[in-house]
Specification:
This protein is mainly α. About 75% of the residues lie in helices and about 0% in strands. The longest helix has about 35 residues. Helix 4 packs antiparallel against helix 5 and helix 5 packs parallel to helix 8. The chain is globular. About 20% of the residues are buried. It has one domain.
């Protein structure tokens, strides 16, 4: 009987610690999208720093309007933030995401971010 109670207590403790982490993650994810749309690079840098986040590690997990951060920055005409994201990401990730073809097929082939992406991948 005491093993069951102990198991329930351990499970409750784990769940109580998991919920705040998930809520915090959702909060900074929403903030990251809001700051991207506002093209506010300084607030994004502060958010990443305050939460001890590495953009390379969270990039794939965060989506704004079901798009990656760079795609969302292009749609939002957020050049400063988009350029920051491009500089933080490895060239291999940018190639895998095929951002140039995506931009062309979505009418954003003339976005200034395309030049930054090409430069980062060494194709300029």
């Amino acid at each position: 009987m005491s093993k069951k109670i102990l198991g329930v207590l351990v499970a409750a403790a784990v769940l109580s610690f998991h919920a705040p982490v998930t809520q915090a993650q959702e909060q900074w994810s929403v903030s990251l999208c809001e700051y991207t749309k506002a093209d506010d690079k300084n607030r994004i840098r502060k958010l990443l720093s305050d939460n001890k986040l590495n953009l390379r590690k969270i990039y794939d997990a965060v989506q704004c309007n079901k798009e990656s951060l760079i795609k969302f920055a292009m749609r939002s005409d957020a050049y400063e933030v988009g350029a920051f994201f491009v500089k933080q990401m490895p060239a291999k990730s940018l190639k895998e995401e095929d951002l140039e073809n995506w931009a062309k097929s979505n009418g954003m082939g003339e976005s200034p971010l395309i030049n930054d992406i090409r430069a980062r991948m060494g194709e300029d």
